[in-house]
Amino acid sequence: MEKIFTSLKLPGIFILLTSALASYWNYPALETYEYPKDQAELHLKWFESPMGIFSLNYIESSQNPTISAPTDLSVKTDTGTCTASIAIDEATFTGESLSWEMTGATTGTGNGQVGTHSFKIGTTTIIFTATGEATSVTDSMDVVVTDEEDPKISLGNAISEITDAGQCTASIAIPDATFSDNCSGSSISWSIAGATTGSGNGQIGTQTFNIGTSTISYTVTDAANNTISQTLAVEVKDEEDPKISLGNAISQTTDAGQCTASIAIPDATFSDNCSGSSLSWSITGATTGSGNGQVGTQTFKIGTSTITYTVTDAANNTVSQTLAVCRRRDPFLLLVQPDPLERHHGVVPAISGLVHDAVRSLPDLLNLLEVVHRGRRSEERRVGKE
Questions:
Q1: What is the pLDDT of residue 326?
Q2: Straight-line distance from the first to the last Cα atom of the chain, in angstroms, rounded to the nearest whole number
Q3: Where would I find the H helices in the chain?
Q4: CA 153 to each of CA 117, 150, 243: distance values in angstroms, whole numbers, following the listed order
């Protein structure tokens, strides 16, 4: 102690103690600051106290967070699906933590960055929140997903049918069209053009088709109004032959004093499953000729004539049938008068008179010989009596 408190050192110690006490009693009162506070409002950059010297510096920290969301996105659905898998860019933020919430077409919440997420069709808003010690800030982005994928459709092969029996149409059950889309909500419609016309929604089912080619146009429309169309041809043919009915064969004698007969042929009856049939005819044999429509009244020669009818429908199907017309010769009288010069010589008597037409056939000849023979015997009996 003696060494410490020497006369030389006492003045120095006194000065130090006096200076410390003066600093303590003369230091201004401490000020209180609330955070966060703008740096411009801090009017003291430093101060002293018995505990030491302090400096005031404004430092941006988690007490004042910031957030910047990624830019908006617009994408299409993934192929074959009704959603889009999207990798969201990272949000830029300061603060203690980051969280997010999705609203709209897609919903969800999470912490940290969003990363890769599956988004539904429509607009989804992602709200990012950066949180500090006492406050939080938000920023948002929109994710728009659209469906631009067309539906798909599959039809069977072209259809070819014949008309129903006795009908000019065909009732056909059309196989169902197969269609699909990456999203639900698709619908199918159809229209028919050509030989048959019509339209409707859904599957066609069973329809009545006219003769000819009809084209069915299918259209599939999805929920996003994307469409696809495809056609199916339906052909209906008429292969049914017409029908015809004729009367019995006709047998008639020649008209009085004529070598022919004028005969009114009864009308043929004909029909078809479709309209547009026509009738034609031809005559062969003893009489010949041809024409269209009913035969009507015709002049027929001696002998047998055959009328061949042919009915042709609009599809060129035909049916033919024949009718026989026989013309008989009238009975005639053959006058036989004996020749006086040859009466007793056994000679065949001379034939006088005219015979209608020359002998044309074996039956005609036999008839003539029979008449001559009867005349000869009659003449012989007369000679014997003399």
A1: 86
A2: 227
A3: 10-26, 362-385
A4: 31, 10, 45
Element (H, E) at 244: strand 243-245
What's the CA gap between 253 and 230, in Å, rounded? 70
CA atoms of 271 and 8, how far apart (whole Å) = 157
- Please list, in sequence order, all residues whose beta carbon lies within 8 angstroms of the beta carbon of residue 90, skipping any fewer than 6 positions away: 70, 113
Residue 156 CB neighbours (<10 A): 11
Distance of alpha carbon 151 from alpha carbon 353, whole angstroms: 100
Question: In this structure, what token pair is assigned to residue 194?
Answer: 């050509």
Mean pLDDT computed over every residue of the chain: 81
Antiparallel, parallel or unpaired: β 250-253 and 318-328? parallel
3-state secondary structure of 349: coil
Q: What is the per-residue pLDDT across 220-231, written as a single tens digit (0 to 9) for each? A: 999 999 999 999
Beta-bridged to residue 300, according to DSSP, are: 261
Among the listed residues 61, 26, 17, the one whose alpha carbon sits nearest the alpha carbon of residue 47? 26
Q: CA distances (Å), 293 to each of 2, 78, 130, 369, in order?
A: 166, 71, 100, 45
Residue at 220: amino acid letter = V
Coil, helix or strand at residue 155 = coil
Q: What are phi and psi of 19, to 5 degrees?
A: -65, -40
| Long-range CB pairs of 192-196, under 8 A, 24+ apart, other chains included | 192/216, 192/217, 193/217, 195/236, 196/234
Range in 16-30, 205-219, 228-242, 266-280 with the lowest mean pLDDT: 16-30
- Report yes or no: 245 and 269 within 8 Å, Cβ to Cβ: yes
CA distance 131 to 270: 98
